Structures are given as structure tokens and as C-alpha cells.
Amino acid sequence: MSKRQIYLESLPHDVALERLLTALDQAGWGPQREVVPTDKALGRITAAPVRARISAPHYNASAVDGIAVKASDTFGATETSPLTLTIGEQAHWVDTGDPLPPGCDAVIMVEHVNLLDDGHHSGARCEILAPVAPWQDVRQIGEDVVATEILLPEGHTIRPQDMGALLAAGILEVPVVRKPVVTFIPTGTEIVEPKADPAPGEIIEFNSRVILSMVSEWGGTPVRGPIVRDDYDLIRRTVREAVAGSDIVIVNAGSSAGSEDYTVHVLKELGQVLAHGVAIRPGKPVMLGLIDGKPFVGLPGYPVSTWLTAELFVKPLVYRFLGQQVPRRPTVRASLARRVTSPMGVTEYVRVKLGRVGERLVATPISRGAAVISSLVRADGLLVVPSGLEGIGEGSEVEVELLRPLSEIQETVVAIGSHDTSLDLMGSFLRRKSGFYLSSAHVGSQGGLLALKRGEAHVAGVHLLDEATGDYNTAYVQKYLGRPALLVLLARREQGFIVPRGNPKNITSFRDLARPDVQYVNRQRGAGTRLLLDYHLKQEGISPAEVQGYRWELFTHLNVAAAVKAGDADAGLGIRSAAQAMDLDFVPVAWEEYELCIPAELEEHPGVQAVLTLLRDPEFLGAVESLGGYDCADSGRIRRV
Amino acid sequence: MSKRQIYLESLPHDVALERLLTALDQAGWGPQREVVPTDKALGRITAAPVRARISAPHYNASAVDGIAVKASDTFGATETSPLTLTIGEQAHWVDTGDPLPPGCDAVIMVEHVNLLDDGHHSGARCEILAPVAPWQDVRQIGEDVVATEILLPEGHTIRPQDMGALLAAGILEVPVVRKPVVTFIPTGTEIVEPKADPAPGEIIEFNSRVILSMVSEWGGTPVRGPIVRDDYDLIRRTVREAVAGSDIVIVNAGSSAGSEDYTVHVLKELGQVLAHGVAIRPGKPVMLGLIDGKPFVGLPGYPVSTWLTAELFVKPLVYRFLGQQVPRRPTVRASLARRVTSPMGVTEYVRVKLGRVGERLVATPISRGAAVISSLVRADGLLVVPSGLEGIGEGSEVEVELLRPLSEIQETVVAIGSHDTSLDLMGSFLRRKSGFYLSSAHVGSQGGLLALKRGEAHVAGVHLLDEATGDYNTAYVQKYLGRPALLVLLARREQGFIVPRGNPKNITSFRDLARPDVQYVNRQRGAGTRLLLDYHLKQEGISPAEVQGYRWELFTHLNVAAAVKAGDADAGLGIRSAAQAMDLDFVPVAWEEYELCIPAELEEHPGVQAVLTLLRDPEFLGAVESLGGYDCADSGRIRRV
Fold this sequence. Notes:
Chains A, B: Keywords: Magnesium, Metal-binding, Molybdenum, Molybdenum cofactor biosynthesis, Transferase. The first copy, chain A, is α+β, with helices and mostly antiparallel strands. In chain A, about 25% of the residues lie in helices and about 25% in strands.
């Protein structure tokens, strides 16, 4: 633990990259040429202008079915004085694509030929009523491509139609830019190959699969090195071998500072450190260097950092080797749903969800944890906060780089609010039955209503118990949304205590939660389940301070169940389906109404209509009930508030 | 020749497609599921919602390097009364990612720990100045993904980050939609495998490569059948075998009507014809049918027709089998440069070039020949003329489907005008040296000036001899463009007679062109070379009617050279580089000035500036001179007119 990582510097990332690219230029690193069969050239980039070997067509070809003639033989033919031609002498039958017989320079379509004798044999006579011009209905040599002309310029990415033109022009091999071989070396003693049952402390290695898949998409040849434990000599040997066989070498540090430390010392011994630490977040501890004139990139271990630094540093290297500009991601302008902050001097990359609600495209920042790979699965776009800003205010218009096609985002129903297991199911059904996508974020019932109010979402899942009346949702919608809305019943669902198998602590009432031997796990403020707990504690006259774990807040029913499953908590309040999913026991407390709140002005939105249709779909409702603890008898019931 | 193809019908293409899809639905044809290793799942489509097998993290992990503690043991620590903890008893060293030791529920960062003894051994003591809350600096089980939660919905295309999340969640295999196997059977006795030296009458088979490359891009598994000659039994046997092993079968008819005829009869015998002939152009003779409940598509033989009908009929089949919507191509709005016409009742697909000149995006229709594969290489977009219209007028705003990224189109310098071999070279150099693309169309010098006038191009290559003054270009620019412009010398170039090796007809003067034994090949009206001929014929008092072939018009120097090379012409007027490229002889006539005309208002356009820079680049000029017949001594000279 004594060797704490000291970063050499904290360069702006573009300066760091330019330093690497300049060093590579000086080392003569760059595009190389190889020749591949045209058949295998799809997606490859031409390394030189490609010239046609032969013309297409490569002979004068009939463009129709008919008789080939010499045009001058037909001059003078008219309707009143037709001209007779003899097959095999002045006229020759040809099909489309046939070469013109010697001496012929035009074709008369069969529709314009009167047969005077039976059949097409040599000697048969036919009659024409009009002359033809030279080269009429003939595809002349080179009509499509002329031999020696440049068919594809240098630096052109070969598409399906290009392959056709190349083969038509007799080109069986093409000079293309060699794909860079990119080797990825995962390091870290705690790192293991993907498995379904890792032991505590084992970290599944998946960064290599993510980054090398990206390398494939960019046009490189991915190579995965073996996992190397934190052993200086072993890392050095592996890097040296990788450099010999690759054009770009990536070392992915384990997540602990120690393994990163090995990497930078290996780089110092084998080559030259050009940058260590860049002013970005996430991804600061990136390392750039040169070994034997080839780029070496040390990527940090947390998956979002790995992904971002690969985007910022590996992608430009792959494109540089291919002689191409890095393609810009499409961008959109959107309104920022919540303020984001960022330290001065650091360029911050914020993952956002995008949703079109009404006329506005809204960008909602999502979890910033660099360790959370699922945040990249859920992200629709990337917002860059420049290093000169300390943040961007709520409601600002921002430019967002798209990580998902805008067309999909436009067809997405945005659900923000309380978590319910059936929402995930709804996503799949909605996609299959209506083509719409569902994006759902779990911020609790109250958070959902506030998101509706701000125009960030189409629907919000809510289950808020009104202590005064025992009624669900109505009063809260009036209070937090304050506009006409629909409340549509998704399902009645059963709340209760999620407890380990066999309920070892014998928890049967809210009173039990206050026992000193009971560790409780709670939901966050604003969650309907939290309100339910508070309501019952108040009823029973229990102070929150008496409940051990009252302040331990998790964001979903499943997270609560997972904490119970792990033995970290003895009980948590949640829905039966979460207990059932985790194979835990469940002590019922109450049935409640889980409704979707939809602002009235969004009722006619086609995606909202698709949701309403789904809430009356027996197949969907059957699937919900099979999750356990759901009653769908009245699903789809609409109340207007 | 007796069996002329009679089309059964001429259905609107959407009606024909819907007929096929309905029949396939009834036959139960559609998505099937298979399970693949997650490692191989990139780009595949989930066939069911994918649930996490394990949580990520799957244990409570330290988020920092430090000491793991039980939070309640730290309560009461302050700066004034620090708390001492003993390693191995109340405190345990952990690295980032390590599991919390039993009994611990929080981590204190190493930066906040004062070491009281030397070293990290068990029994060493350390001091803390503040308490920690439970779960502080701990990545709790399920922070990223909770076991059993839906990670990816059904119908989701797996991206690199999704692979990471799947592996993190212990998912080693994924249920995905099976890719449809698409077999392509080329037919036609005249069809041969790609070769560099086909004999006259041999047609190189490349449609299979184009269409199957597209099938790959759409997500299908391409299978290429052997080329089948026009033999009914052989075609029937091949189709029957293909149907047994495929999900979609394509038969590509030879270009003659006969082979198409075989195909429809085979389809009638083995299955059911659903449509034969659709109201589109090109591509009318498409065939749709069903054999053993699987789709059969007969694609016409001309490459542009093949491509278009594959887009319209095969693409929707592949996506239907994958359970996906056909992605819409991005579109742009552009101003139509020239009127296009189309018969009523037929949907016409017009390939267009796009160029941004000034503020306007202009769409210029290109050659409609269905046999011209290079037109698909050159096309930037597709304009659809609906069946209810007879055409679309010049200057109309139209919607164009993009075949090339808009960003590339925006970075394209559009050159329309006289053909010169060095322009092709310029395209490659421009791309490499400045990143700009060059799009060049050959319509002759006068046509180029008119294109500039209409705002369709940035530059026009011109070499127009003023008979009165012997000066080049100036008077014409004033007459046809009528606005201030720059004339920039690309090169002086040598014009002369392109003749076969050894000049067998001994052509040495314009007078020789009028000899009865000489077949001439001309350039089109408006071409500078045509004007040069007319000037000299007039000087010599020769009437055009005396020149055999005066009305035979080709569009480029290379096409003229190709006609001479083929023996179809004895001479043509053209530039030395064309003769040299085709290994022909050349009889010099004159040096002329080939200039680029650039409207003055476009001078500051960055792409135009890149062209001007290139015209003073020794490497480029050297490459031009090596083409033969160019003098670049004054290249880059600018005249303002």
C-alpha cells in the first residue's frame, strides 16, 4: 500500500493525443498497404486509386433481343418501302448481352422486325420499316467503365456496389490499407475469465470484449492477450511480445492502484512515457507512450473509464493507421433536465438519457459511477462539459453526441418514477407489439411526478399512499404535477417484508423492525415503499431511529432483495416479485395500486397509446401475474384527475 | 426468340411485397431462436429479454484503497479525540475491488488513515479523525446490475457495451434471433466467374457479390450458389436444393428474356408465383413467390435493377426474419438540378449526385442505364418519383435518400465540365492532402459553365477555343456564366488524333478524316474537343457530312480511345494521356489550355482553396505530367474574368 500513484501531469486530452500522434509520425508509424482479393474487400479502404483493367462492357454488346445489322445497310427503309434483310447475310439474331457480329454496328429490336419466313434459320428473310442509326441499341465498349479510368479513389471504403464495379472492370485484387492489429492485455491478479459463479473478490474480465468489439467496428484487427497477474516481469514480457506482433498495444490496468503502477514502470523500461494522467473524467489515469515506434495505451480499469479512454485515444489511433478521419458522431441539441457540475480544468463526459416529450428533446444525466457498465447500456448520448466550465445549468440547451440512433430515441416512451419489475417486461412487450422502445429510470414515485411536471417523461409509475384517506396517488398528482392527468392502473401488487428463506429472525410485523437484532434495509426518500414504511411506523408509534438500517437507502426492490440475499440485511420492505426473483421468503403486508400517471396532454401520443393498449393485453398481463404478487383484474382502468 | 416474356401483372411494389409477407406469415415463416456464446454475440439481436444471472458487483467490494471497518466501530471519532483501530481486529487493509471482510460494512480511504506503527502487518495500529457511515466507499452488491433484472430487452441489437454488461452479469450465452440463410443463384449461359480477360460475349458475374455483401450488412448469412446455365432441369434442381438449406432463395436471371422465362416456370412448378412484374423502374421484371413456405425472389439481371429490387424486396425479408423494422435511410431535402420524367403508374428510382454549393444542396440526376453499375458507385442518393407523377420539374425541392453520409457530401468539391484524366488523379490527391472529396461529372466545357451558372458546381474544367481570337475560355465564361470568375490553369495539354498502333490509315491531318476509308469517332456537342474539330474542319473547308462518324458521339477521351482500341474507329480527336493509357498512337495537333473556372463568390470556399493549393503542389503536378501530354509549368496561374 505504500506506493501511491503519483500522476506525472494532467494534460488536456487533445494535447496528450497530439503528443502521441506527433511522436508516431516521427517514428514513421502509419498506413501500410496490402493486396486482398476483391471478394474479401468489403469494408476495406483503398490504399491507392484503383484503375479499371478492362472496359465494361468489354465488347460491343446488344442491349436488346433483336437483329444485329450494319446501320448503313438499313438506310432508306420506310413504312411504304420496307427493306428486306436475310438472316446470316445482312442480319444476325442476337439476345441481350450478345456481342455484335463482325461488321455490325446496330441492333433492331425484335418488336420492329417482321418475319417473312418461318423460323430464325440462316437464309430466312425479314422486313424492317425504318432505318437505324449507328450504335443504336448497342452497349458500346466502356459504356459503364473504360479500361484505365480511375474507378475508386484512394482512401475509399469499399461498399457492395463498389465490389460489383471492381469485378466488372476485371479487378480481382485490390490494394487496401492493412488493418491495424490491436492487442489488448488485461492485467490484475483479481481478474478472472467470464464465469457464471465467480467467488467473492474475483472480478470478471469483460473490458477486453467491449474494447476489442469497438476495435472491430472501427476497422482494426482485435487480438486478446491472456490475463496477466500483477507481476512486473510477466507484464513486461507480455507487453514486449505484444509490441512485436501488433500495431497498437493496450494494457488495461486492474482497478487497484498497484497494478497501474506496474504498467507505467514497464512502459518506462521498454519505451517512453508521453502522457500519464489527462484532465478528463472519468478516465484520468490514462497512460500514453511509445515502444519500438508503436503506440502503447494504458487504459484505466473501471469499465466506463476504459470505454471512454478507448474512444478518446485508441479510436484516433486506429483511424490514423487506416489513413482516415475519425468519423464524428451525430449530435442533437437537447434541453438539460438537471444541472451537472464538473471541476474547472477537467473535461467531463456525462452519460445522458434522451427523450422527446412534446416538442422538446430532453437530456437527463444518469449515474456517473465509472464502475457502472450498465450506465453505458442505458445511455442514449454523451454530454461533454468543457474544462473551462464548472457545470451546465438546468434547462440549458446542450449538444449531445448520440450513442443510439435518433430515430429510436424519437420512438421511445420515457418512464421515470417508481420501480416495478413489470416495467422491464413492458419494455420487451412494447417493442414487439408496437415497435416503440421503453426507457425507464427509477427515481421513486415523487421523483416521477416531478419529472412529468418538468416535461422529461411521458409516464411515471406511482404508488403513493395518502395517509389521510388511504387512497392512492390522486392527492399526490394534484400536489406535485398540478395539471390534468390520467392515472392508469398497471396492477395491484403485494407489498411485504422480504426476508431470508425460512424467515430466520421471524419478522411478522413492523414492530419487529425495531428489534435490536434486526438489520433493516430501506428505500430512498420519495419512494412509495418508503412512504408505506413511514406510514406504518407512525401508526405503530415507532421512531425511525429505532430501526437499524433506516438510513441505508437502496433504489429498487431488487436491490433490497439482493441485500437480504447477501445476508447484509434481515429484512426490507418490497414487492413479492422481487422476493420471488431472488428465491427469498415474503411476509405480506398490504396490497397497493401501482398506477401509471400520464399528463392529459400526452394522451394522444402514439407511444402512450401503445402503452394503454398493452395494459389491456392478456398476454402481457399474464406475464406480469406470473412474476408473483400481481393482480391484473382491473389493469388498464383509467381515472382522470 | 419466340418466347417473349409476358408479365403476369404490374403491381405496385408495396402491394407485391405485402402479398409475399402475408403468405409468409400464413406459412409460419419468421424469427427463430438460437443460443450463442456472449463472446460471439456482437451485432446479434436478442430473441428474449435477457436477465442478469448474478449481480454486479457480486459481492460487497471496496471502492477505494483503505481500511475496511464496521461503521459503528468508528462512531465518536473526531479531530480532537481520534480513534485508534488495530489492523486485523477492527480494521483490515483492502485494495479497490477487494471484498469486505466479514463483519465490515464500510471503508475508510487510505488518505484519511494515520499510521501509528510502521507497516501494514496484523497488530499495527492506526488512527482515524472522523466516523464513517455504513456502506461508505463500498460498491454494494448489485450497484451496477441486480441478479434477475432484465438487462437487455427482446429485439435489442447487441453492442460492445452490452457485451460487457452481459459478461459482468454472469451471462455466458445469449438467446438471439437466428440469421436468415440467403442463397443467391446466378443463372445464364453467358455468365462467367470474375476474370481479368473475359472473351467477347462472356458476362462477368458480380451481382451475387453485391447482393450478398448487402445481405451480410443487413444481418443475414450469405450463401453463393454456383452459376447455373440456362437449363430448365438444372435450375429446378438447384432451386430445390437451395430451398431445403435456406430461409430465402434468390435467383438472378441472366440479362436475356429467355433465362428469366426458365425461372418463372421453375417457380410455377415448385411453388407458387405471387407477383411477376412490379410497377417500378428499373427492376420491373422482379418475381416473388413461395416454395415450401419460404420466400423465393427472382431478381432481374442488369446490376442496377438487381441492386434496387434487392433493396425493395430482399431487405424487408431479411429484417422480417430478424424481427426488426427495416431501418430508414437518412434523407435530405435538395433542389433538383434537371427535370426528371417518369411514366404514370410507375415508381421511378433516380440516382443522383448531391453537392452543396453555397447554401443550397443540389441533386443532379445521373445516367439511368440499368446496366451501369458505376452509376451506383457515383451516386450520392436516390430520388423516388412516385407512380402518380409524370416527372418532377427542375428547381423543385425534393427529398433524397442518402447513399453516402451527408458529412462526406458536405465536404465534397463538385466539378462539372470537360473531362480530363488528371481530374481523377485530383480526386485522390485532394482526399489525401486536404480531406476533401472530389465529385466530377463529364458534360463538356459548355455544360460545365452552365452548371456553374445554375449553382450546381464549384468548379468547371473548360478548354474552349475562341475561333475569332485564338484565346481560350475568356469569352465563353463571359457568355455562359456571366458573373465574375477565376480561371485557374490546371495544365497545358496536347490534343491530337488517337489512332491504332502504327497509325495504319496514316492519318496526319484533318483532311484525312474526310477520306471514305476512315471511320471517325466524335465527342458530344458542347465538348471543347468537338469545338476544336469544328474549328479545324471550317479552316480546311470540310463539311461535317464528309466525316464518316461525325455524329457518333462519346463523352470522354477514354471512351474515344476505347473505340479506337476496339477497332470500331480509325481515329478520334483527344488528349495524349488517353492514347497513352490505352497504348495507342497519337498524332499531335495542338497544345491547349485546360483551365478550371471558379465563380468568384466561391473563391473562399475551403474545398476550392484546397484545389488551388493542389494546383501548386509539385507532387500532384508531377503525377499529372507523368500521364503524358501535360505541361504543368504554369499550373496554378490565376486569371480573373
